[in-house]
Amino acid sequence: MKIDLSQFRQTFLQESAEHVMTMEAGLLDLRSAPTDTELLNAIFRSAHSIKGGAGSFGLNNLVRFTHALENLLDQLRSMEVPVTEAAIAVLLESVDVLRVLLEAGAEGEDAPMPAGAPELVARMEAFISGPGSVADGAPAPRPAGGKEAGADPTALHDSDLKVYTVELEPAREMFLSGANPIMLIRNLASLGTLTCCQVDTAGLPPLDGLDPGQCYLRWTIELTTARPEEELREVFEFVEHLAKITIHSSPAAPPAADLAVKPAALAVAGTAPPAKSTALEVVPDVAAATPAADGRRVAQRRAAEKKSGGGAEASSIRVSTDKVDRLIDLVGELVIAQVMTAQMVEGFTPGCLPKLREAVAAMERNTRELHERVMAVRMMPVGSLFQRYQRTVYDIAHTTGKQIRLEISGEETEIDKSMLEQLGDPLTHLIRNAADHGIELAGTRLEAGKTEEGVIHLRAFHRSGRVVIEVSDDGAGIDQARVYAKAVERGLVAAGTQLSEEQINMLLFEPGFSTRDEVSDLSGRGVGMDVVKRNVQQLSGTVSLASVKGSGSTVSIELPLTLAILDGLLVRVADRTLVLPLLAVIETVSPQAGQVSRVAEQGEVVVIRGESIPLLHLRRFLGISEIANGGMIGGAEGDQQRTLVIVVEAGRKKIGLVVEELLGQQQVVVKSLERNLHRIEGLMGATILGDGCVAPIVDVAVIAGMDLFTLQAPGSRQPRAILRQPQMQAS
Amino acid sequence: MWNCSEQAVVGSSREGFEVRKVLIVDDSVSMRQMVGFTLKEGGFEVLEAEHGQDALDKLQGTSVDLVITDLNMPVMDGITLITNLRKQPAMKNKPILMLTTEGLASKKEEGKAAGATGWIVKPFDPEKLLLTVAKVLP
């Protein structure tokens, strides 16, 4: 039987890619928590898993490299080597090498060691103190099949036959490790002919003193075989510590010639796994090409390989069981609807028609939802992509000597997997731009009255049924006068043309525009802002830039989303159910009479823990009813039991939304209003609830941006249009 | 009828009529898949657990003939799992194999001390894995 494990290569590679990400993120976190053993353990486990699996697919260089990495990590987690910035830097570089090796592994080959890898290994070893660790065993790139040379029975001749006398004296507690002497004897017998097997019962105690859990027996076994003694010893491999085993080979000594051959053969088998030191120094020709800048080479290779071998990753997708369960539920409903329809068709009378219509409609609804849910399987949180940039920022900060922190929010925002993949490059460019051009050196920042450490925010959120990804920095901002001058110089605009700030900002997205006189080492190459724009446009998105000179810039990428899923908080307003994005919700309060007051030009505010938060009556905003509770919350109408304030946040602004009841929390599929009805300001879309009702989803960001005071004017809003249509059908 | 039952005896394990069950404990999906596939090819029924605690949970109310466990795992590592299993009457004398990589001889010793029956070295050769299993499974 030949068992082929190559079918699991894909799983291994995907898993390893995740491990590499875990390692990278962990290493970056380690900077602020160098003694976090749990973190170190997790990093170690990732390296260990990669190594363990790689051998099964013949990725021997990956095994060797991971081995060196694992050794260092092992020393770090056992505190024998301190966690230092330098150690982290080396480990991060190693992670790059792992990526290269893994990506080459996706193409089915044992990749050559990337340039710089041996030097990295040497640096890793330099961290490991003491000579003992070097003897920790060579890596294990055993060729699949193991040492079969000695096991091939055809290679054995009768003339090699020997008689072995094996004495087996188990320790009393042998049974406690699951070992079984009978199994040992049986295995021994399979190696040749068992000519004698004697059991010595002298050790047996009287019955009343016998513990059946202990082993009192010993055996003497005679085996005639041509196999070498090592194979006999192997039988007892697992019980060496649990039994005394002596093996004598007796009378029929083999001819001397054979003796000479055998050790040689063994020696060959022994050298098959190359020793660590030599293996790692043998590096294919690329090694010598560029001794410096190996990091960049790795990055370039990575980029190149991504383009060529991207297909491998796309071929599989991980889906949470939640999503799968939902699909199964829906299929169940669909089957029920189908059975109902079939029955009605069977015994059809004209009177059945309305019922039949209903059943068909239900089926249609289920089918459509099934379709959407299946599409949703492709949705992935942006977190995995975002985390990658921690490393980018770390690298730039190191190269430029700046202090930069990357803050990430909205990682759980989901977008289509293919979109996510295509966002990688433009975002890399934007982040690099922000870190390299935006954030100033610590000294400059201090002079400008800022903190030494620059902050880049990478955020994702839903807005008006679209996904927005924002990269903002608190750096120098854009010098619009310079941009304008440059554009004139480049002939992009005629001198003297009047341009708005926004128009000037958009000039940065023109092909071939660069405001830096000397092109920076980091972000000046390859893609420019024009490529960012083109990439985003390919995804039917838009990109915009806002900047205040001296205090930073924000680039926003807006991507369309006909379908998205978000966690919603279901609330009741009058007889309507509305959905609020849970992400935006901070807290829910039931305000006391004294907490609410009217402030000139702001309308109503609620005071929560000393903070005044403007209020918006969703009921009025949606134009549902202007009668009940016309006054303030907790006012004379005595309606306070039925009003709740949900505090939501958008940007840095908080507002309190007044609703009547909390109904629960649920994942909802965002459906575009534009497509099904028309765009309505303040609503990001709608969803269809379990009972078939349409529930509008409130766009918190837009509402927060509106002038609440004017909104308070009764009946001023347009959404009434939709809400006055009862039970809008989902078409 | 008579023939039929005789056939059943021939086709089943020495122990009895049931296919023998192996629990694989490893946090790596690919490793579980590979070991599992190999064992299924070898005619075993396979259960999987992600880590030691998961294994203990999965063994509640069911028994297996063999446990194969990784050592480095989150939540509960392999050594702790073996120690725990050896305290359970049902698992006291059952074979337990650990999955180890060669670099960590000390771990192997720890495993043996905890009561592991034997070990399988990663990367493993499928045929050899089945031989090792045969070696410890009565």
Task: Explain the overall architecture.
The complex is a heterodimer of chains A (731) and B (138). Chain A has 24 helices and 22 strands. Chain A is of the alpha+beta class and 731 residues long. Chain A folds into 5 domains: 6-142 and 282-295, Four Helix Bundle (Hemerythrin (Met), subunit A), CATH 1.20.120.160; 160-254, Ribosomal protein S6/Translation elongation factor EF1B (Alpha-Beta Plaits, 2-Layer Sandwich); 321-377; 380-560, 2-Layer Sandwich (Heat Shock Protein 90), CATH 3.30.565; 566-723, OB fold (Dihydrolipoamide Acetyltransferase, E2P). In chain A, the strands form 6 sheets. A 6-stranded mixed β-sheet of chain A has the order 14-18-19-17-16-15. In chain A, strands 6-8-9-11-10 form a 5-stranded mixed β-sheet. In chain A, β21 (683-688) and β22 form a beta hairpin. The longest helix of chain A has 26 residues, at 321-346. Chain A starts with 8 loop residues before the first helix and ends in an 8-residue tail after the last helix. In chain A, 34% of the residues are buried. By secondary structure, chain B is α/β, with parallel strands linked by helices. Chain B has one domain (17-136): Rossmann fold, CATH 3.40.50.2300. Chain B contains 6 helices and 5 strands, in the order αβαβαβαβαβα. Chain B has helices at 2-11, 29-41, 52-58, 78-86, 105-114, 126-136, and strands at residues 21-25, 45-49, 66-70, 96-101, 118-122. In chain B, strands 2-1-3-4-5 form a 5-stranded parallel β-sheet, with helices on both faces. In chain B, β3, α4 and β4 form a beta-alpha-beta unit. In chain B, α3 packs parallel to α4 (78-86) and α4 (78-86) packs parallel to α5. Chains A and B meet through α1, α2, α3 and α6 of A and α2, β4, β5 and α6 of B.
